[in-house]
Every structure is written in structure tokens, then in C-alpha cells.
Amino acid sequence: MDQMRQLVLVGFMGAGKTTVGAQLATKMNTYQRDLDQLIEQRLGETIASYFDRVGEHQFRQFETQILQEYADQSAILSTGGGIVMQTINRQILKQSSAPVVYLRTQPEELLHRLKDDLDRPLLKQMDHAAFIKLWQYREPLYQEVADVTIETDQLTPTQIVSEIINQL
Ligand code: S3P
């Protein structure tokens, strides 16, 4: 397990990237960096408020900047669900020496998990049909960057962690 010090987690919002990343970090005796948290720290503002103020386009540019800084750092990096939307981000992820793990969760399960979530700006703008459409749009983009895909619907975070360790 010692060689596996770096890893990037991708997946749709609600897939469990931050929770799994934290558990994985403990198990691998390393630390997790959460891209959304890094963005918020740098901005001194929540993503929801930044999103409302400047819009998605500017948020994406800032997200790329932070990804560029941290993609090759020696740690577990959890990313925001929209990280694969930008071609440049996909290139950064593919070029990174860190294996990219896609936590794949079906949209119905995600909708169930996120139904009371008020913090995610994109959710506020979407009905169920739009959510599923976005999931379908992003799905091949996650696959494009992923070295490993884990189907997470039936698994607890602890089981997902074991599965990741088994597969890498
Ligand atoms: C987004 C997901 C969020 C956050 C931002 C945009 C998206 O991260 O980066 O609100 O486009 O799916 P999580 O996947 O951690 O919710």
C-alpha cells in the first residue's frame, strides 16, 4: 500500500467522494485534500455564495486553477462533481501520475441522497429530468479520466474504501 500514496476521486455530487476520501486517507496513513474546501479557503467564501455572485463560468476557471496546483500533490484529492466538464481539467487528470478513481452512483440513488441538500448551487437550478440529463452527459467524461470505476450504490463508505484498495 505504500506506493499508493496518491489518488484522485471523481464522481457526481453525492457520490461520497469527501467521505470516502477521508476514510481512505486514514487507512493509507496519508491526508485528504478536498478541492471544494481548498477553493472555499482560497476564496474566503462558500462555493454556493461565489457561484451566485459570479456564475458558473468563473467558478470553473477558478476550479481549474486550484486543480492545476494540487493535481500532482502527494495526497488523496477529492474533486467537485463538475471537474470533468472542462477539457483542460480532464487533461490535467489524465496526465497526473495519481490514479483516478471514479465513484459511480446511479442518478436515482443520488437524487435520493441529495433531496434535502441546500448547499449545492447546481441542485437549486435543476429538476429531476435535468439532473438525470446532466448525469448522462458527465458519465462518459468520468469514464474518460478514470483508471478505476467503483459501483457505489450498494456499498457503504468502508466497503468502497476496501474496494479501492483491492483494485489499485
Ligand atoms: C459541482 C459539485 C460540487 C461543487 C460545485 C459544482 C458540480 O462539488 O464543486 O457546487 O458541478 O457538480 P461536490 O461534487 O462535492 O458536491
UniProtKB/TrEMBL annotation:
Listed Gene3D superfamilies: P-loop containing nucleotide triphosphate hydrolases
Pathway this chain belongs to: Metabolic intermediate biosynthesis; chorismate biosynthesis; chorismate from D-erythrose 4-phosphate and phosphoenolpyruvate: step 5/7
GO terms, molecular function: kinase activity
Subcellular location, record wording: Cytoplasm
SUPFAM superfamilies listed in its UniProt record: P-loop containing nucleoside triphosphate hydrolases
Sequence similarity: Belongs to the shikimate kinase family.
Name this polypeptide is given: Shikimate kinase
Species of provenance: Paucilactobacillus hokkaidonensis
